[in-house]
Amino acid sequence: MAIRAFKNYLNRNWIRVNNKMKIEFLVDPKFARDDVMVFDFQEFEWINDEKSVLEEELAGYLDHICRREEEIPVILLLRRTVSLSIVDLFKMSLKVAGEVSCSAVQFVIGSEGIRDYLENQIPPIDSMREEFLLKNCTVILATGDISEVEADAIVNASNTRLVLGAGVSGAISAKAGASLQTEMSAIAARKMLKAVDAVITGSHSLANCRHIIHAATVEGSLDTLRIAVQNCLAICIEKRIDCIAFPALGTGTGGLGIDVCAKGMIETLMAFYRKERSDLYPKTVIFILWTKGSFSVFLETFRTALNEDT
């Protein structure tokens, strides 16, 4: 694929991913038939499934193009390789582009449907937020980074070993400091956790909250998710926590679909607040979602649940 083939694609319908990078989706149906990922500008087609090799090759391509400021890198993002989905390839491309400081990237895709789907994988620049009243509790749905949310307690999606990893755990760990893992390891040494368990620690260097509740949801089952949410809310009652913020538990390493997660978390919350003595429960519950697609799913699920509850 030669550079000349892309001169007609420069539409400049940019979507800003963050303050440093913007992207553009360019739809061309003729590429819907192909089953490879192509980095243009060097007549290079990629069909290797080795993720680490692919990341290295992609980084080399993007770094090479981004240093030549007069050109914009173009990636043909097609259906999939044998083991990597189109979403995997898209997220990998954004990650690598950020690492090599690309200010703009164009993605050529095969259909409008793929574009709409991939746009929902991008964190929105402008925060999205909706509020609802559930008995005496304010439920907030919002996009953002849970490690920056103002709350009495934030919830970390943990494993049963209480070892901080990537995703939500990584974001919290980076800001809370090494002392958080020290406290978590001490708890794990005293008590063997099982999936569904939740434990509470201090917030350490996180100034936006007083506590972190670690919910063991890495197993990724709906039943585990429901019980873990109940256990987090029970800790709130015990510790007199008035405001708690949840991420989309179980959707990272756990592998739960966002629709399943939304249904499980929202139904569990609503069932919890139907009980007597709800005056003891948190007055504010926040669901923090990373992408606008996740936000939309939670919003639709919550509205449906409210309508069915009336």
From TrEMBL:
The keyword Glycosyltransferase applies. Residues 126-306 form the Macro domain. Gene3D superfamilies: Leucine Aminopeptidase, subunit E, domain 1 (3.40.220.10). SUPFAM superfamilies: Macro domain-like. GO terms for molecular function: glycosyltransferase activity; transcription corepressor activity. The keyword NAD applies. One of its GO terms (biological process) is negative regulation of gene expression. GO terms for cellular component: cytoplasm; nucleus. Keywords: Glycosyltransferase, NAD, Transferase. This is Appr-1-p processing domain protein.
